[in-house]
Amino acid sequence: MKRISLLLLSICIGTVVCAQKYTEIKGFVKDDRLKEIHLYRVADGVSHLYASTKVAEDGSYGFLFSPPGPAFYTLGNDQMDFVIYVRGNDKIHIDILENKAELGRKSTKENIALYMWEDFAADVRLKAVYFNRTKSDYRDFFPEFTVFVSKIDSIKRKIKSKNAAFDALLKKKIDYDVDYYAAYFLRTPRVVHPERADWPEFYTTIISDDKFTTDEVLQFPQGVRMLDMYANFGRISSGKKYSSLEEYQDACLGYLKNDRLKGEYLVHNVFPGIKNYNQYLSTLNRFEKYLATSSQKARVEAIGAALYETAPGKTAADFTYPDVNGKDVSLSDFKGRVVLVDVWATWCGPCRGETPHLKKLEEEMHGADIVFLGVSVDEAKDKQKWLDFIRKEGMGGIQVHASGWSKITKDYKIEGIPRFMVFDKNGNIVSIDAPRPSSPELKKMLETELKK
Description:
The protein has 452 residues and is of the alpha+beta class. It has helices at 2-13, 16-21, 109-129, 138-150, 152-158, 164-187, 223-238, 245-254, 259-269, 277-287, 294-307, 349-364, 383-393, 407-411, 440-451; strands spanning 23-28, 36-43, 46-54, 60-65, 71-76, 81-86, 91-96, 101-103, 320-322, 328-330, 338-344, 370-376, 398-401, 419-423, 429-431.
C-alpha cells in the first residue's frame, strides 16, 4: 500500500494544483482483529463511507485522495472509529491501536491539537461509548468523569494550532463531546445502574437554552447522535411522563433550538420508524416545516417512496412543482376533479408523438371536470428549452417543471416516459400506468371516472 501511495504522490508533485489538493493518510494497524480500514467523511452529522483499504501483512495501510473541502473524517470500522481533520494537501500519520488511535509526528497542526483532546478523553470515551470493550459502571466511571471534567479548561487553553477557526471549532467539539459521553453512559447496559442521586454535579449543567442553537454540531462525526442523546437526556432529566408518542416527539424537539437540527433529528429518529404511507403523510404534515435543507427533504421523500403503494384506490402521492410562471402547483390542489398527469420531456420522441393526440383529447373533453397536468422531467438546465417547446407546440392544460427525475418518478416508480396517470376526484389512484392518448381506452377511463 505504501508503494502505491508514494507512486501516486510522485505523479502529483509536478502539478501545483494537484499538490494543493491531495491528502495522504497512512499508518499501522496494531489490532489483529482489523483486516480492513474504512475512511469515512462527515456530512450532516453522520460518517459516510468514503473509501476502504486492506491492511497489509506488515500492518500498514494508507489513503491518498482529494478532499472536497476542510472537514472531519473518521478511520476504523463499524465497531470503532477515530476522528481526524482533513484540509487538503495534508500528510497525516495515525496508527490504529486496539482501543485508541495514536498520532504520529508527521501530522498537521490541527490534528496535533485534536489529539491533545482525543488522547485525554480516550478512557472516558471508551467507558462511556464502547462499553462492550471494557468493564465499567457508575461506581468507577463517575469519579473518573468528575476529575476529567475538572481538567477540560486546562486542555482548552493548550489548544493552539495556529488556525484560529479550527481552534474555536475544536473547543466547541470538546463541549459537545463531554455532554455526549455523560449522556451516553446513562443509556448503555451496565451490571448496575445509578440512581438519580448518584449523578455527578456536572449532569445538572447539560441541558441549557444556550445549546444546540446553531447547526455547528453537524460538522462532527457523532453530530446526529449528539442530538439524540441530548434530547433524550432532557426527557430523562425532566422526569416528565408523556401520554402519547406525539407528545414525546414534541418534547424532544423542544430541546433543539435550530430548525435544521430538528430536521436531522426527525430524519434519523422519527421517519425511519413509520410503518405505512398514511402514517408517513400525517407525520410529514406535522413536521415538514422543520425539513430545512434539500438533503433532508430528499431523504424523507425516499422513506415515503419506499412506503408508498401504487395500487388503484390508494391515496395519491402528492408532488409540487413550479408552472410556467414560477407558481407552485400541487397534485392535491385539484382534489374534487379528475386529473390526468402526463410525465414527459422535450427530448423524448414518444412523448412528442403523443402530443397531437393529447391536444385532441383535451379539445374533446373541454368543459368536463378534468385537469390535464403535464409534468416535465427535463433537467433544470433545460428549463428554457421546456418553456420554448410549450409555446411552440401550443400545449394546453397546466404545465409544471420537475427539474429531472425527482419525487414524482421515485414515488410512482417511473423508469421510462411517456407515462400517463389518472387520479379520481377523491385524490386516489385510478391508474399509474394508464393508456396513452393515442389509445381510445384512455378517454373511456376518464369518462368512467367523471360519471362517478
